[in-house]
Design brief:
Structural class: alpha+beta
Number of helices: 11
Region (Disordered): 334-354
Catalytic activity: L-threonyl-[protein] + ATP = O-phospho-L-threonyl-[protein] + ADP + H(+); L-seryl-[protein] + ATP = O-phospho-L-seryl-[protein] + ADP + H(+)
Radius of gyration: 21 Å
GO molecular function, one term: ATP binding
CATH architecture of the largest domain: Orthogonal Bundle
CATH superfamily of the largest domain: Transferase(Phosphotransferase) domain 1
Strand content: 5-15%
Order of helices and strands: EEEHEEHHEEEEHHHHHHHH
Number of strands: 9
Keywords: ATP-binding, Kinase, Nucleotide-binding, Phosphoprotein, Serine/threonine-protein kinase, Transferase
EC number: 2.7.11.1
Strand order of the largest sheet: 1-2-3-5-4
Number of domains: 2
């Protein structure tokens, strides 16, 4: 545990949220575990986002971990948490900063062609890395790093990029605590023996994918058949097969390519840590990165119809990775009744769009 980030203990308020806030019916977004609506402080009239979660162990974990992470400039901060009855359920009502600047890639898409440069991409990556390092320093793995969870606080140049949605976040376990009878040591997969390292490394893989898309406008792993997913694509993810195709990568620096390669290492033990990523000169000295114009916004615009499928596929790939981490008992996947896997089975068995 890094003493630079002391633990903030959460004690939800039991008073009614309506004493302090006016809640509207304006839906701002949908998180993994609950919807987000607009609310206003009665004292200041400042606008906030309110996330409503039915109380459960999962919801408590999400709010607790997000609350602990709320001291970072590049993480959406929680302002207040209430425990109230809502439609006859005990709910956690989480008041957060209102992010009005839109999603990261949406912002890039809106720029004129060629106006997004490698230096700007390096600055964006630096900001995301600050958030991830803050989390890893307090032993939290976010486990859901993706473009939709990276939002700007305001429109225009004064907006700050922030990470949100802690629905899959998990406290990482010290290796010393693993001497428990919850698995058979002879048969357990090697990565399960080190969940702290393995859990956190999931975030680094996701950072590598995000950085790749930032620099060219399409993902490193995609289906060659126009489908959201294909067996070939899954194999390329598992074996780490990706390239830097021309012309999009022609002028991108070798430093950037080497950093991506280090983050997209299929061996979690050899994958870069967040400390190594942050000390890499492309990130640490981002103001010195060349201002090379990128193809990113052009490719994002051209792939506008494909982009929701790409986002869905990133979500699905992350879900698979998370399921693997949580699979302490070595139960065959085909016999598992895991809800995420069931969802994936339904999607992969449903007829493909022609």
């Amino acid at each position: 545990m890094n003493s630079a980030h002391p633990i903030r203990n959460l004690v939800p308020k039991k008073t009614s949220i309506t004493e302090d806030y006016d809640i509207t019916k304006q839906v701002l977004g949908l998180g993994i575990n609950g919807k987000v609506v607009e609310c206003f402080s009665k004292k200041t009239r400042e606008k906030f986002a309110l996330k409503i979660l039915v109380e459960s162990e999962k919801a408590k974990r999400e709010v607790n971990l997000h609350w602990r992470a709320s001291g970072c400039r590049h993480i959406v901060n929680i302002i207040d948490v209430y425990e109230n009855k809502y439609h006859n359920n005990t709910c956690l009502l989480v008041v957060m900063e209102c992010m009005e600047g839109g999603e990261l890639f949406q912002r890039i898409q809106e720029k004129p062609e060629g106006a997004f440069t490698e230096r700007e991409a390096a600055q964006v990556m630096h900001e995301i890395c600050v958030a991830v390092k803050y989390l890893h320093d307090i032993d939290i793995a976010h486990r859901d790093l993706k473009p939709e969870n990276l939002l700007y606080s305001k429109p225009g140049t004064y907006g700050v990029l922030k990470l949100t949605d802690f629905g899959f976040a998990k406290e990482t376990i010290n290796k010393d605590t693993l001497q428990t009878p919850c698995y058979t040591p002879y048969y357990v997969a090697p990565e399960v023996l080190g969940p702290e390292k393995y859990d956190k490394s999931c975030d680094i893989w996701s950072l590598g994918v995000i950085m790749y898309i930032l620099l060219c406008g399409f993902p490193p792993f995609y289906s060659n058949h126009g489908l959201a997913i294909s067996p070939g694509m899954k194999k390329r993810i598992r074996t780490g097969q990706f390239t830097f195709p021309l012309p999009e990568w022609q002028n991108v620096s070798q430093d950037a390519k080497d950093l991506i390669t280090g983050m997209l290492n299929i061996d979690p033990g050899k994958r870069l840590t967040i400390e190594q990523v942050m000390s890499n000169r492309w990130i640490a000295q981002y103001t010195a990165v060349p201002q090379t114009p990128l193809h990113t916004n052009k490719m994002l615009k051209e792939g506008e119809e494909m982009w929701p499928e790409v986002q869905e596929e990133m979500t699905r790939s992350l879900a698979t990775m998370r399921v693997d981490y949580d699979q302490i008992q070595m139960k065959p996947l085909e016999k598992s009744n895991n809800s995420l896997l069931n969802k994936r089975r339904k999607k992969t068995s449903s007829p493909k769009k022609v």
